[in-house]
């Protein structure tokens, strides 16, 4: 085999192997759990969710009235939730424990009461 | 009640005086630092005057319009603080208000009335100038439109006797943040100054992660402090948390002020944020103002002044307080900021 053909074959083999590895990995990755959370003045529904350490979850966030915030500092989540659209946040909790999500976009006089308990099981 | 009192007895009346120490080494720096001449000359050019000692006061979070548990006295603490400051022997050059001047209201008209009442009460302060920044109650719902109508721009800067003051708005975007445009403005504003210039930043929320789960943070606070990092003498004064707090973050020292409506509990010993209950025997417990001034030893000191009524008459506690006359039908919430 000529050197150029040998190099091309090697590159092809490596690329093929890499694509296969990616495909296998994607097939093995768990589908994220989906949890829908609706915000309205001045609470989250539901107000308590349970996640699992190491397992991805997608939070589908909606608002029934005004712009709200959704912040869980431990999970590095901090986003606005605007009415009329779904805001997706996908996260894989790395630590078990009890955390609190708060609304951190000021929404009115009862803004400080908007909390959601987040339990991450081991 | 109206007679003048000297500083020593005032502090006794006030019940608490804490010389926390040097806020910024303004005067010593000018004497001993290699760039002292540069700074002095610079401020002479800006202000037409040499750096001089002076005093100012910080008021925070009066929440005008709030009435009900845990503070049924409405604007009484705010009004008493004004009276107390006016009886000080030394007139402050100006007063800084670090946000939540008013309590939020559903009605724009009611909110506007509260802003007018704030201006009426703060207008009684015997001082040359009042400088304000908004809190989320003042400006977060409408992007600061009503606030600007009553108080002007939400961020700005000014020089005073050799110190550069920067007012930062970290509330009117709704989300607790300053924003890239305002940070760029601040960088350009500060670029004129030598790194040794004394700078006081005043804002509403803490510019660091004090207690994020209680919303005691600014999302882009690190970006703000990184922009301030080259400057050696930075002091940050803020409110929002309704209690004293002192924290050194890099070159900067951050001071949270007490409120003039109710106090929050201690985040170090409590999982949940709660308003401290009203104390009939000491109605202004945990409320107060801050004085910043020259202690005549070439440094600047901070004095925390807790409001109390103990020395104001023969009665004690709640009996000393006149029934509030708040015609705005104040509102409250189970929890507020």
What do these coordinates show?
The complex is a heterodimer of chains A (122) and B (337). Chain A has one helix at 3-28; strands spanning 33-40, 43-45, 48-52, 57-63, 68-72, 77-81, 87-91, 97-102, 115-121. Chain A is of the alpha/beta class. In chain A, the strands form 3 sheets. Chain A has a 4-stranded mixed sheet, with no helix packed on it. In chain A, strands 3-9-8 form a 3-stranded mixed sheet, with no helix packed on it. Chain A has a two-stranded antiparallel sheet with strand order 5-6. Helices cover 25% and strands 18% of the residues of chain B. Chain B has helices at 7-14, 26-32, 36-47, 76-86, 108-122, 136-139, 145-151, 180-190, 221-228, and strands at residues 56-59, 94-98, 129-133, 156-160, 163-167, 198-202, 233-238, 245-249, 252-256, 288-294, 300-306. In chain B, the strands form 2 sheets. Chain B has a 6-stranded mixed sheet with strand order 4-5-6-7-9-8, covered by helices on one side. In chain B, strands 3-2-1-10-11 form a 5-stranded mixed sheet, with helices on one face. Chain B contains 9 helices and 11 strands. Chain B is α/β, with parallel strands linked by helices. The A-B interface holds A 67, 69, 71, 73, 78, 80, 99-100, 102, 104-113 and B 103-106, 136, 140-141, 171, 174-176, 209, 212-213, 215, 219, 273, 331, 333-337.
Total beta-strand segments of chain B: 11
Largest interface: A-B, 19 and 23 residues
N- and C-termini, Cα separation of chain B: 33 Å
User: What is the residue-averaged pLDDT of chain B?
Assistant: 80
Query: Which band does the percent of strand residues of chain A land in?
Result: 35-45%
Main β-sheet of chain A, in a few words?
A: 4 strands, mixed
- Determine Rg of chain A (CA atoms, Å): 21 Å
Number of helices of chain B: 9
How many E-type strands of chain A? 9
What's the total helix number of chain A? 1
Radius of gyration of chain B: 19 Å
SSE series of chain A: HEEEEEEEEE
Question: Which whole number gives the mean pLDDT of chain A?
Answer: 87
